[in-house]
Specification:
This protein is of the alpha+beta class and about 350 residues long. Among the domains are: about 70 residues, Antifreeze-like/N-acetylneuraminic acid synthase C-terminal domain (Type Iii Antifreeze Protein Isoform Hplc 12, Alpha-Beta Complex), CATH 3.90.1210.10; about 120 residues, no CATH class; about 45 residues. Helices cover about 35% and strands about 20% of the residues. It contains six helices and ten strands. The strands form three sheets. Strands 3, 4, 5, 6, 7 and 8 form a six-stranded antiparallel sheet that branches. The longest helix has about 55 residues.
């Protein structure tokens, strides 16, 4: 019994020694990681101070920004601009360094698009000296402005604003070779920029209004398409997502795509409609003829009534005229006295006249 107790006490001592060793190892590792974190933090701070020092040493320049928000057509005046420092190597293209550069001696300038407060004023966002803010100044090189007529439905309920991009849909109805009508919709143009709605070209406008016309920025060929399509069918607008400027594959949509019918089903339904229309037209013609006959009969009846109410007028006796009757009789001709009989003898034929019996 004493030996067993001694052995148990020995194992407990070894366990306590192992626990103390693990604690020492953890403490040493924690110290190492702490020292490493301090070193890395000092290195990062030194790098940041170095970058800030280099930034302070970088060459500085100035740039003209808008002191207040500008809208389309607003004049660019001194009180609406201010000069701020700007890194010399990061000046945007078309920026102005001083207010004097913006206020040219040739004339005042106007904003061609919305410019926010503290936004750099660029040459592409304002007119040239002495120019007015018109659509011709907004058009890109080689582009044309074309207006199309819309209504509250075709114009996306007035939610199309200047600067948006839309797709142009063309709805048409054509007659096939078999005499049936076919309606379909094609995507005529995609991702077309809206320049103005009615006569509003301000891209900062936010209130939706029902418009009657939309002006679009298109190429010369697309302008020809729009002009031709305006007389060929009905044009509609489909508003695109702001960032969706790329075109997409499209297909023609017909009535069969709406109902799932085949072209034969559509043709049969159209033929039935045409037949019903023809029957209705024939019924109308018959009704018109019947009305005409009825009116003629009523007119004759009224005339006969007038004649019946009129008094007879005595007329002198007409001289009796001789009446000649012509009588036509058909006489049966007498049969011939002899009858001719032919007899074949071998290959020869002989004829005889035989008296006809009376």
């Amino acid at each position: 019994m004493k030996a067993l107790v001694a052995w148990g006490d020995g194992n407990a001592g070894k366990g306590r020694i192992t626990l103390r060793a693990n604690s020492i190892v953890m403490i040493v590792l924690a110290g190492i990681f702490g020292v490493l974190a301090v070193v890395l933090a000092n290195m990062w701070l030194a790098n940041q101070r170095s970058q800030m020092a280099h930034a302070d040493e970088a060459p500085k320049a100035t740039i003209v920004v808008a002191a207040v928000g500008l809208k389309f057509g607003d004049p660019v005046t001194t009180d609406k601009m201010r000069v701020i420092p700007w890194p010399a190597g990061a000046i945007p293209a078309g920026a102005f360094k001083t207010v004097e550069e913006v206020l040219a001696k040739e004339g005042n300038r106007q904003a061609l698009q919305a410019i926010g407060a503290n936004e750099p004023i660029l040459a592409s966002k304002i007119t040239g000296p002495g120019q007015r803010a018109t659509l011709s100044a907004v058009l890109a090189d080689g582009m044309k402005a074309v207006s199309i007529r819309v209504n509250d439905v075709l114009g996306v309920a007035g939610f199309v604003f200047p600067g948006d991009r839309v797709d142009i849909l063309l709805t048409r109805t054509v007659r096939n070779t078999d005499g049936t009508d076919q309606s379909f919709v094609d995507v005529l143009l995609q991702s077309i920029k809206v320049l103005a709605v009615d006569q509003v070209a301000d891209e900062s406008s936010e209130n939706p209004t029902v418009v009657k016309a939309v002006t679009l920025e298109v190429s010369t060929k697309d302008a020809q398409k729009l002009t031709l399509a305006a007389g060929a069918g009905q044009l509609s607008l489909a508003l695109r997502q702001v960032a969706a400027n790329e075109g997409e594959s499209t297909a023609r949509v017909t009535l069969s795509d709406l109902t799932g019918d085949t072209p034969d089903d559509v043709a049969a339904r159209q033929a039935e409609l045409d037949r019903q229309a023809a029957l209705d037209a024939e019924r109308q013609r018959n009704d018109a003829q019947f009305d005409g006959l009825r009116k003629a009969v009523e007119k004759v009846d009224s005339r006969l009534d007038e004649l019946g109410k009129a008094k007879p007028v005595a007329t002198p006796a007409q001289e009796a005229k001789e009446i000649v009757k012509e009588v036509i009789r058909y006489v049966q001709p007498e049969p011939p006295a002899f009858a001719t009989i032919g007899v074949f003898r071998g290959t020869e034929r002989a004829t005889y006249d035989v008296p006809r019996a009376k």
